[in-house]
Amino acid sequence: MAKQAGSKTRSVRGSRTGRPIMALLDLLGRRWTLRILWELREQPLSSRALRSACDEASPTVLQARLTELREAGFVELGDGGGYGLTPLGRDLCETFMPLHRFAERWKNSSPSPRLRGEGRGEGEPPRRR
Amino acid sequence: MAKQAGSKTRSVRGSRTGRPIMALLDLLGRRWTLRILWELREQPLSSRALRSACDEASPTVLQARLTELREAGFVELGDGGGYGLTPLGRDLCETFMPLHRFAERWKNSSPSPRLRGEGRGEGEPPRRR
DNA sequence: CGTATTGCTACGATAAATGTAGCACAGGAA
DNA sequence: TTCCTGTGCTACATTTATCGTAGCAATACG
Fold first, then answer.
1. Which of residues 35-74 of A touch B (CB under 8 A)?
2. Where do the record's region annotations for Disordered lie (chains A, B) (predicted)?
3. Which residue among A104, A117, A120, B12 is the one 20 to 30 A from B5 at the CA level?
4. What band does A17 get if pLDDT is binned at 50, 70 and 90?
5. Structural domain includes residue B118
6. Residue B21: is its pLDDT beyond 70?
7. Residue B85: which CATH number?
8. Threshold 0.85, pTM exceeds
9. Would you state the pLDDT for residue B19?
């Protein structure tokens, strides 16, 4: 992948700049990461329950993300089984909780019938050039 | 991929539940998406400048993300060239701007030297089971 | 004309995700 | 004990996504 894996600090993708925001953006920008945090936002879930909540995502990735999130200190296993957010994780979750409200607003705004429908039909003439 | 691409609304991965938050989490959970929004947060950038800012990510993905973000209404091309956030995109960016502060806090907390260092060396005995 | 920028694309190589199957372990009946 | 069920977790072959390099057409300036 060229990025990351340089030597130590496999840490997170295009980060390496030292700025923690980059590491965080990278970690959260992996498949299912945001979703996992979202699904755990209210109560802990068993690995299987989490899988169900995540649209039956393959256990391989889920396990990988769970490990990353645990290493990051956002998620923990809970001695009785079941994954839950750590205090830090709960904190993070609340940080992007406003996204929920934004998402609702987004759906309604939708400046044009975008995001759904064929991959850019015609509709608008080529922009420039 | 099984997920998405069903028929219409190729929209976003494990979404389909109708809940816009899922679509949003999915869109943002793609590689470089968060990073792109972050890099555009202050001023518009040309495609090449954006590429530089994004650690020389390959133009293939960048272009793909840019297209998705434009379809979502978060980014626009700007008639003079250069990508910039739409009002909606600026709104979204501010929504997860607190992440910046959180990231700083995260770096300092770091309940153990996690996230960096070999992929889980030994360190701690197997957890359970 | 040449040169340099722009946004954007092709395409082979590589890394990551998917889907299915299954493991070892822990409890609770029977 | 044995059987059943649920847990966290892994193997592995297939499919997708991303990478990295190269290059295109269009625009602008000299």
1. 35, 38, 54-55, 57, 67-68, 71-73
2. 107-129
3. A104
4. low
5. no
6. yes
7. 1.10.10.10
8. no
9. 81
